[in-house]
Amino acid sequence: MTDAGASTEQQKAQEQAAILMQALPHMLHYDDATVVVKYGGHAMGDETVARDFARDMVLLEQSGLNPVVVHGGGPQIGAMLKKLGIKSEFSDGLRITDKETVEIVEMVLAGSINKQIVGSINAEGGRAIGLCGKDGNMVIAHKVARTSDGVDLGFVGEPAKVDATVLEQVLGRELIPVLAPIAQGVDGETYNVNADTFAGAIAGALKAKRLLFLTDVPGVLDRDKNLIKELRVDQIHALIAEGVITGGMIPKVETCIYALEQGVEGVVILDGKTPHAVLVELLTDHGAGTLITR
Ligand SMILES: Nc1ncnc2c1ncn2[C@@H]1O[C@H](COP(=O)(O)OP(=O)(O)O)[C@@H](O)[C@H]1O
Ligand SMILES: CC(=O)N[C@@H](CCC(=O)OP(=O)(O)O)C(=O)O
User: Fold this and answer.
1) What's 87's domain CATH number?
2) Ligand 2 atom closest to the CA of 42, numbered from 1
3) Among positive and negative, which fits the CA dihedral 32, 259, 254, 202?
4) Residue 110 placed within a domain
5) Ligand 2 centroid – CA 74 distance (Å)
6) Residue 138 Cα, ligand 2 centroid: separation in angstroms?
7) 294 carries a ligand binding annotation
8) Containing domain of residue 212, as a range?
9) Is residue 74 part of an annotated ligand binding site?
10) ipTM of predicted assembly, 2 dp
11) Quick one: which of 269, 271, 261, 189 has its CA closest to 229?
């Protein structure tokens, strides 16, 4: 290598070292902290996005944080039900889930998607462990009462009790738990739980420092579609009442409020399709998405 080539290499190495050093205050801030990341079905996207997500989880783990992944898979369940010719409808944002449907939901969530995420984290050098709410009696569900239209949702559950024993055994041992939102009911049946609700319950039980919701929008947007960078709980109620927060964002922000009440320090809603969204949020000075605090 010429002298000029060597000095360019050295300059590049110095630049890389400087970038790494910028992450130090953030790593110290989150040292040993539990961060629950809800990875929504819409945020999963293509192979590159999935690989970047897996790499982010491994990097967090190696940086001294304890990431816990809770995944969804609504669009993927929809595609499988369509393939099988099973009709599916939603009420109040929840899938009406009969006996036949809950079997497919469990198969897609706890089977195919869970193992795909575990596989991609492991392929990036991590050690992921795939579980659902049934494992170790982690989440016991009760049946959701009828919706506002009086619809019986069937096997749709809400976490009634979370036992974090299994997770506590796993965390801090360089294992990354990947959780599918399926739970056993108090009646012994299998229940389909909305992944946002499941993530909120897990984050609350673990008193996580951060709960991140990876979705398909940059965060909570105002009336003019500009990103709101910080929100307090009291402001959320007003935004719902004014019709600025609507649709799928309502249960998401309601889960944020619940998680904060349970002792989670901060919740962030961010765009999962932005490359390395989680790293930008946790390990850079910039932050991403909307931070919601008490
Ligand atoms: N004020 C708002 N800011 C951002 N998104 C909003 C807002 N109000 C409603 N939404 C809708 O909420 C959606 C996100 O919720 P949802 O589709 O349930 O996400 P996910 O599938 O990731 O759980 C956005 O794609 C957007 O259409
Ligand atoms: C009861 C209920 O609606 N459960 C959801 C579970 C998956 C989910 O929540 O996935 P996303 O996060 O990708 O939306 C469903 O059946 O679609």
Assistant:
1) 3.40.1160.10
2) 13
3) positive
4) yes
5) 4
6) 18
7) no
8) 30-293
9) yes
10) 0.96
11) 269
Would residue 12 count as lying in a domain?
A: no
Q: Decide if 21 is inside a domain.
A: no
Task: For residue 108, report the distance from its CA to the centre of ligand 2, in Å.
Answer: 11
* Claim: this prediction has a pTM higher than 0.90: yes
Q: Which residues pair with 37 in a beta bridge?
A: 69, 212
Judge whether 192 is annotated as a binding position.
Answer: yes
Q: Is 248 in the pocket of ligand 1 (CB under 6 A)?
A: yes
**Best of 194, 196, 215 for a ligand 2 pocket test (most atoms within 8 Å of beta carbon):** 194
- What Å distances lie between residue 69 and 110, 181, 188, 225, 278, CA to CA? 13, 11, 25, 29, 12
Other CB atoms within 10 A of residue 124 CB: 17
Number of domains in the chain: 1
Other CB atoms within 10 A of residue 9 CB: 11
Q: Each residue's pLDDT tens digit in the chain (294 positions)? A: 677 777 888 999 999 999 999 999 999 999 999 999 999 998 887 888 899 999 999 999 999 999 999 999 999 999 999 999 999 999 888 999 999 999 999 999 999 999 999 999 999 999 999 999 999 999 999 999 877 778 899 999 999 999 999 999 999 999 999 999 999 999 999 999 999 999 999 999 999 999 999 999 999 999 999 999 999 999 999 999 999 999 888 889 999 999 999 999 999 999 998 889 999 999 998 888 999 998
Ligand 1: atom nearest CA of 272 is 22
DSSP state of 168: H
